[in-house]
Design goal:
With 243 residues, the protein is α/β, with parallel strands linked by helices. It has helices at 11-18, 31-34, 38-47, 59-72, 114-118, 123-139, 158-163, 182-199; strands at 2-4, 29-30, 52-54, 84-89, 92-97, 100-102, 105-112, 146-153, 172-176, 222-224, 234-236. It has 8 helices and 11 strands.
Length: 243
């Protein structure tokens, strides 16, 4: 990947934002890769040297790395932290690295926006990721009794927390996630691996197009405004409803 500095940040800041503590394992796919659409996975792998990213876009990624480092360094002696495990599914080596495991509980740290908690927009993805970790732990001989997210809210506002009933009351939120059966985990992972493996030989233009959900596309809405007005008088889900 090519890193740019479009905003002319100082050299030391650029170096800090360019640095990554993430170390990829030697598996075919990681737990997070399994959750991506096949089009993104394969295009990124084929064209990584052509992709550009500005260092400014890495601010929150570096912030998340720092938070992870602090939390992981204070794990108890009998906890498993940042240990990568592997399993083989459909002939592919799958790897994953959990943030914290102790007494049968897998914990993953997420630095995220407060709106992901209010709108519950990340829970499904987090649950899927942690169940891949849970399966990895199971096949490597570790019991898993629970999975949870510790969400650090980077844009939390104390004043809003005092005023609004549905606003998170603290900047760190612990979110227990649903537990799947062994069969449910196995089926989910098998399907994800099979999809990536089956599409690996496709040409770029043949790769399946990402779904509307995978593109974060919102349903189309139609706003009715008075001439010159900035705000809509009414909003409709269907074009014909305004008539």
């Amino acid at each position: 990947m090519k890193l740019t500095n479009k905003y002319n940040l100082p050299e030391d800041v650029v170096k800090a934002l360019s640095h990554s503590t993430y170390k990829a394992g030697d598996g075919s796919y990681s737990a997070t890769t399994l959750l991506k659409p096949p089009r993104i996975v394969h295009l990124e792998r084929r064209h990584m040297d052509e992709i550009e990213q500005d260092v400014m876009d890495r601010v929150w990624s570096v912030f998340g790395q720092a938070a992870h480092t602090v939390l992981e360094s204070h794990g108890s002696d009998d906890a498993i932290t940042e240990e990568r495990m592997y399993m083989t599914i459909c002939g592919e080596k799958i790897g994953g690295q959990v943030d914290h495991y102790k007494d049968g509980i897998i914990t993953d740290y997420k630095v995220t926006t407060v709106w992901s908690i209010i709108h519950d927009s990340k829970t499904v993805e987090w649950e899927q990721q942690l169940h891949i970790y849970a399966h990895l732990f199971k096949v490597n001989g570790h019991d898993v009794r629970g999975i949870r997210i510790v969400a650090i809210l980077r844009d939390w506002d104390k004043n809003r927390a005092l005023r609004e009933s549905d606003y998170p009351k603290t900047p760190i939120v612990v979110i227990p996630l649903n537990i799947w059966t062994h069969a449910e985990r196995e089926e989910f992972i098998y399907n994800r691996v099979a999809t990536l493996s089956d599409t690996a030989g496709y040409l770029d233009f043949e790769l399946p197009v990402c779904t509307a959900k995978e593109r974060w596309e919102r349903p189309t809405k139609y706003a009715v405004k008075k001439t010159g007005a900035k705000r809509a008088t009414k909003v409709f889900k269907n074009y014909r409803d305004w008539e």
